[in-house]
Amino acid sequence: MSDKRVDPATGEAVTYNELVTTYKKTYKRREIEEYWEACKPARAKKSKAAPAKESKPSAKAKSKPDPKAKAKDGKKDEKAKPKAKAAPTKPETKTDDKVRTGKDGGASALAKLRSFSGCVLAEYVWLDADGVTRSKTMTMTARPLKVTDLKVWNYDGSSTGQADGHNSEVLLKPRAIFNDPFRGYPNVMVLADAWNAWDDQPAKNNTRAPCAEIMDMYRSLDPWFGIEQEYTLMKPGKVGLKPTVPLGFNADGSEPAPQGPYYTGAGFNVAIGRPVADEHYKLCMEAGVKISGINAEVMPGQWEFQIGPCRGIEMGDHLTMARYIMLRVTEKHDCVCSFEPKPAKGDWNGAGCHTNFSVTPMRVAGGYDTIIKVCEAFGKVAKEHIAEYGEDNDKRLTGKHETCDINTFKYGVANRGASIRIPREAEKSGRGYMEDRRPGANCDPYRVTKIIMKTTGECLSAETIEAGGKTHTAFVFIKPHANNEKVQTLVKEKLTSEGLTIKSEGTIKSTVIDKKKLIDTHYGAIAAKAVTMKPKDLTVQEKSQEEFEKQFGVKWSKVMEDGLVFNAMDGAKKLGITADELGKKYDALKKGEGIIKFGGGFYCGKVDDIYVINGFYMNMRSKFTAPGTSIYYYEVEWPVEKMPWADFRGKLLGPTDPASAPEGSLRQQIYSKWSDLGLKAQPDTGDNGVHASASPFEALAERCNWLRASISKDAFGKGLLASGIPLPILTKEWFNDPQVDFEGGKKSLFDLLEDLDAAACLKKCKEIVRLEGGSGEFAFKEANLQLLLAGASCPDGGGVVEGLDELLAQVGGESGAAVSARFLPSTDLRLDPAFTWITRISIVLAGLFPNLMEHLDFLGLDMLLMAFGKDLPLSRRPARRSGPSAMTSPGLASPRSPRSPRSPSPRAPPEVKPLFSASSDHRCLSRAAADAGGEACDERQLLLIKTRVASHRLSQCKAKLGSCAARLDHLQRQKRPRRQDLLEASRLLLEVVFLLTEADRERRGRGDRSDARTRTPSPRRPCSPHFGTPELASSAERVAGRRTCR
């Protein structure tokens, strides 16, 4: 970096390397880089001789202008002055250029600045518990260009009604950036929403978060909004109280002339408050708010501004910022802005927030019918809408003053006395928008737009789902071994003769198939079962197991126990043959004799003396990617009533084995006429001529893979999205044929949907996604996590063990007693009720978080066991002994305690791998116990040592339990909890456990405390526990340090 910048600390211009040389011994390189970014570019210094140099080019004519120059020296000076005066326009531009843009450097960057003169002010604006805008301003090192450039700030939520005083921190998450029209460029205003700092949930009255979810759900409808915000300017009353007299009312308190001349009027005593309205309009434009107009309203002092058109969530953002700007404007006009629905009693109009709305189906030709359908849907949920349209709205919606009665719903064209007004132009042109006239001026725009979009989305989704179930679209292709002109002609004639419409057709060459990995994606589940998955990981349904026993004369469970089932890769190794040789043997098997189908893409065949899963895949890929080969595809479509999907596969296409295909089916014709069609060999189960989709869902997945079809533009795809299945779930999970929980067990998604018609397929998909809760590796079971905390405030768990046993049965099928017996071999450890409760909590959590059962130390159990001085054998792997202190039994052993505190159990537990370092933490606890009593303490004494350390936590019991409950509730609602969230939940659970143990000690009596005080261990700090994560290690180190040092 050769350019120079001014070091604020010294005021000198330096290069980056010079800056590094100066500060490298004081600051880290990252800090120096941030400091360099905050430095201003150095100005180029002009030399004093510069004017003389500029006159040198005229040296050739020096003899001519010399006298004139002397005579006109004054004039030349006069000409130079205007240029100097014009120069200030350049510094203004340079000042703008000097403003850094991008991400804020934060406090570390500010601390290194010589002054904050080049910084930017950002005013954060949000809604409090009552829906009133609040704001606070911060200094930033750069002007943000996007929301991610801004930091998450915080404020005292107890002062805004959004938190309690003992836990008051609320976060401000930036959502939109506006120019600051009050302070000017480069300062900004930031629209933010509030989130609880303790559980990262939307704070009280954060209505933006649920609104954003609805807008995201129905994003494909592209909703547009336009809101007409009416407001009334009022005369100031007492500080802190609502004003009662409108600005346009007489000074003596009497009412002005009846309404009539004030609407869109002009003149003194008519357009009352125009300076406020005009200034607000101007400032909104400067801020970047989408304000589209203003006008005076019916009552004196009453005005309206229009915001929009806005798309989706930005409607609420822009109206909220416009309201805030209005409040700022009235600060200097000696008036108050009121958004009350009925600011003045009597024969005066109220103030509304008419909401104009449309979605894409309304704006296209024929959209008027959609408008009518949505209006009808609004009428069915009129009460639910009124509840979201603002407080005291009943005072305004009386049936008078251009309103419809609050208990009545009606819609009409150009009817301002209706609940919903449809513009005359919409009726005339057959498309347009609708106006909901019910929201009051004080309504929350997020709540209004949310329920409008929700009702509209549900109304149109029903149509979309219905439309998606009316048509079948399938993907059919001729396999490489049969791809020639004769077969293409046969397939096309068969499809068209059955009444199917061919939407598209064409060739896909092997080079494209190989390059884009189309066949790998197509056979993704098949390939996984053949290569990566082991037989024990596969789910074979009971019905398939019965068919297996009938066909092979042996139970599936028996061959699994005997180790006779292999995937294709392992099967080839077992037989000592190559993958191609296995493929040839597998292809020779006949369905019903040597091979059985368990499900879609799931086959088991008997090769020699073993059973091989999907052995055909090993040479399948090479058939599609061999040079010179190709497939020929057809994208076909037909009405559902024309042919059920089961007949399309069973009668038109034919079963997998062409030899058993019905007469006239495609596979039967290719099988019987293979020689006449020019095939090299007769088709078999693997090479059966033609492939076709097994269900409408599988057809969509195949068309997206092979033809790059768009889900959002496909009728069936729209139906899936309208059924509430997120697009990422479809493309990243469901298209890969995952195992899903349905009807009491895990089943293949493709198998569940096989041969279903489109409508039934959509219905079942909706049921599956509802039961799966969004699917995903970390999908939660339907269990109430709050039950886990119900007994934490009771001395012994408050009988919550029974409830935990019920949860254990749900998540793992085991009772708490069975879990204790399996994980706690030593019966004496199960005597303590608190520890039993702790164990149950940890096991339940492990069940709720799949794939974590083998890592319960991740949930903090290792620290708990260290506190009890015990080793929990969760792993069945042999223990790694580390000297004489290695643990091989639940008893505590150490070099300084030659005898165990109690004799080992008669039934020795299996060797296990300790969850923590036996050579450090156990030795420390043992040393502390020995110092306390001269010998190794028993479990009871260790418990006393531990509980004394946790005694100071009693004062924070309620707060910790509340935080833990909130965190677990948050995790339960998440589809994919982050590792950080799991760690936080583990830490909070750990603190709850400490509180519970302390409560258990208190229950047993205070006499133990005095005994513990007389046996104080020496102040020795143990080695840090080994927990594998910095968060748990840090917490464990603090606890361990307090345990031995106090």
TrEMBL record:
Region described as Disordered: 38-103, 876-919, 1001-1046
Keyword Transferase applies: no
UniProt cross-references to InterPro entries, sorted A to Z: Gln_synt_N, Gln_synt_N_sf, Gln_synth/guanido_kin_cat_dom, Gln_synth_cat_dom, Gln_synth_gly_rich_site, Gln_synth_N_conserv_site, Glutamine_Synthetase, NDK-like_dom_sf
Signal peptide: none
Basic and acidic residues: compositionally biased ranges: 51-81, 91-103, 1001-1014
Domain GS catalytic residues, every copy: 207-569
Extent of Pro residues compositional bias: 901-912
Family: Belongs to the glutamine synthetase family.
Record key words, sorted: ATP-binding, Ligase, Nucleotide-binding
Positions of the GS beta-grasp domain: 120-201
Catalytic activity: L-glutamate + NH4(+) + ATP = L-glutamine + ADP + phosphate + H(+)
Pfam families named among the record's database cross-references: Gln-synt_C
Enzyme Commission number(s) from the entry: 6.3.1.2
SUPFAM superfamilies per the UniProt record, alphabetical: Glutamine synthetase, N-terminal domain (SSF54368), Glutamine synthetase/guanido kinase (SSF55931), Nucleoside diphosphate kinase, NDK (SSF54919)
Name of the protein in question: Glutamine synthetase
